[in-house]
Amino acid sequence: MLTHAQTQSKNIAALWILIVLIAVTVGVAALPLWTLETKWALAATLLLLLPFMLMIVPDVRRFLLAGLILSLPLNADVNLFLQYGLLSGAHGLNFTLSDLLLLIAVLLWLLESARTKQVGTIRFYPKVSWPTLGLIAMMAISLIPAQNRLWTLFDLFRFIKAYVLFLYLANNLRQRSDVRLVIRMFFIGVILQTVLSLWQINQWPGLAGLRLFGISAENGTAIKMDFFSTTRPGGTMESCNNLARFFGFLLPLAYVLSLRGETPSERWFARITAVIGTVGIIYTLSRSTWIALIPSVLILFPFMLSRRLLTLRIIRNLALMMMAGMVVLLVFRDLIYDRIVSYDLGSGRTRITSAQAAIRMIKAHPVIGVGLNNYGNHAKFFYDGDEPRSRYWVVHNSYLLFAAEIGLIGFVFFLWFVLACFSSARRASRSRSKYLSSVALGVMSGWIGFFVAALADKSYKEFYVLVLTMWALAAVTEAIARLSQRYEQTMMQYLQDESVYHEL
After folding, report:
1. Of the candidates 433, 460, 480, which has an alpha carbon nearest to the alpha carbon of residue 175?
2. Chain centre distance of CA 122
3. Can you tell me the distance from the alpha carbon of 385 to that of 383, in angstroms, rounded to the nearest whole number?
4. What is the secondary structure of 196-232 as a DSSP string?
5. Is residue 411 part of a domain?
6. Which of 209, 222, 218, 290 is nearest to 457 (CA)?
7. Under a CB-based contact definition with an 8 Å cutoff, are residues 261 and 251 in contact?
8. 128 neighbors 162 (Cβ within 8 angstroms)
9. Over its length of 504 residues, how does the chain's per-residue pLDDT go in tens digits?
10. Of 379, 363, 387, which Cα lies nearest the Cα of 458?
11. Residue 262: which of 183, 324, 331, 208 has the closest Cα?
């Protein structure tokens, strides 16, 4: 008679045999697909593999959760009805790898909720949902004045998907381990993007690794400095500025967890991410993100002091991170200096004149704007004649861009959304759970960086990865607030009766 251990061993062996057979079968089936373009071949192969992977993995929800976050920065998409022009958002009806995983995850979630009769327990999260729905409503209303309504529908579709992502994540980050998983996947994304960027720097036009996703446009941008030219890498994000904003959102979180991570391994992983990501953000040469990162980091200290979080161990960790930061700055001091003092080819002046043009546009269309994703269609009517580039530049200011396209009412909803996210992060940072409060503090710091960077950049509205990242981090803060409440209730129960204590 077989023992339990022998039975378990045989089951594991059988599982591995099954996995090998599935892999061989899919491999043979996928061979004809590799006559297609690389992007399509990969997509088709993944679709073949996905059902079997879902059958094998022990926890489908967490598997999809990890894949969803890891796929966000890849920007691997398919565009239907592709359009070209002075767009300020989506260029077509795009579907990404993350969209596919989100669709599967949402369907399984709804089926599970229906099966367990818990559909009514799905949370709406009104603090963030109301301004988001108001924002989406104004985007829809902006179809009325839009010169190209198809462009508006493209962008509207993206924002609706982002809101679905928010609802899914906010409801399905059920435990602290889920939050850990999401943060870990985001950090892996930062590391992978930096490694790819370093590869791109040694190429021209910086397309290393991108043809895998079917990206043929120039991802690397040459910028003339005082003494040399260099390639500004964009990872998989089409632009060095887009990549910089992605780093700007997540690096403050890495900095915080490098100091206040719950376990040594967690702290060291955060430190590695922080150092590698800092190198990555330096190489983007995005001055506005560099500037935004300063208040984003500095704001951490008043919060930590006010809550007496600067313990001796944290101060020691802080000294270690500052030493690592000094080494990084010393190594790249020439690059940083040259970028700061270099001539920007009139970019700064054009940003000013395009901002003036945006203000004129807002004054002319104050209520419902000129139409979502339609700024470029109207820019030529409001530009300053002394600066011709303003005629076709989409304003590099996310606040002005929202106000111009969807009007001042829509702009109020956008501000409400941003402030609600910041408020949720601030509230969650007061959690009695060390880990949850640390994550919330890092996210809040990232939002502060967003406040500043959005004054000189349009990526937060224009680029899909950053739109998704914004709503994903909003979901993280809402989930943390909910988990913190559960944590405090559990602690109260523990104080009353030690036997009922369990870790969230």
Report:
1. 480
2. 24
3. 6
4. HHHHHHTSSS--TTTGGGT--S--SEEEE-SS-EEEE
5. yes
6. 290
7. no
8. no
9. 556 555 555 555 555 565 565 566 555 555 555 555 556 666 666 766 777 667 677 788 898 999 999 999 887 777 778 787 778 888 888 888 889 899 999 999 999 888 887 777 789 999 999 999 999 999 999 999 999 999 999 999 999 999 999 999 999 999 999 999 999 999 999 999 998 888 877 665 545 555 555 454 444 455 544 444 567 788 888 788 889 999 999 999 999 998 888 888 898 999 999 999 999 999 888 888 888 888 888 877 766 666 666 666 666 666 777 777 777 777 776 776 667 666 555 566 777 888 888 999 999 999 999 999 999 888 888 877 666 666 667 888 999 999 999 999 999 999 999 999 888 888 888 888 888 888 999 999 998 888 888 888 888 888 899 999 999 999 999 999 888 877 666 655 655 565 544 444
10. 379
11. 183
Contact 485, 293 (CB under 8 A): no
- The alpha carbon of residue 174 and the mean position of all alpha carbons in its chain are separated, in whole angstroms, by 20
Residue 221 included in any domain: yes
One-letter amino acid identity for 244?
A
Indicate the pTM of the whole model: 0.85
Structure tokens at 354: 């395009």
Tell me the DSSP string of 440-473.
Answer: HHHHHHHHHHHHHHGGG--HHHH-HHHHHHHHHH
Question: Looking at the 3D structure of the chain, how many domains does it have?
Answer: 1
Task: Locate all alpha helices (DSSP H) within 144-210, ordered by sequence.
Answer: 149-172, 176-201
Domain region containing 105: 93-500
Q: Would 5 be classed as within a structural domain? A: no
Contact 373, 93 (CB under 8 A): no
Comparing CA positions, the residue from 457, 487, 98 lying closest to residue 248 is: 457
Residue 144, in any domain of the structure: yes
Q: Which amino acid is at 267?
A: R
C-alpha angle 33/38/42, rounded to 5°? Answer: 65
Q: Residues 252, 256, 259, CA angle at the centre, nearest 5°? A: 145
Which two three-digit tokens encode residue 186?
A: 């985001």
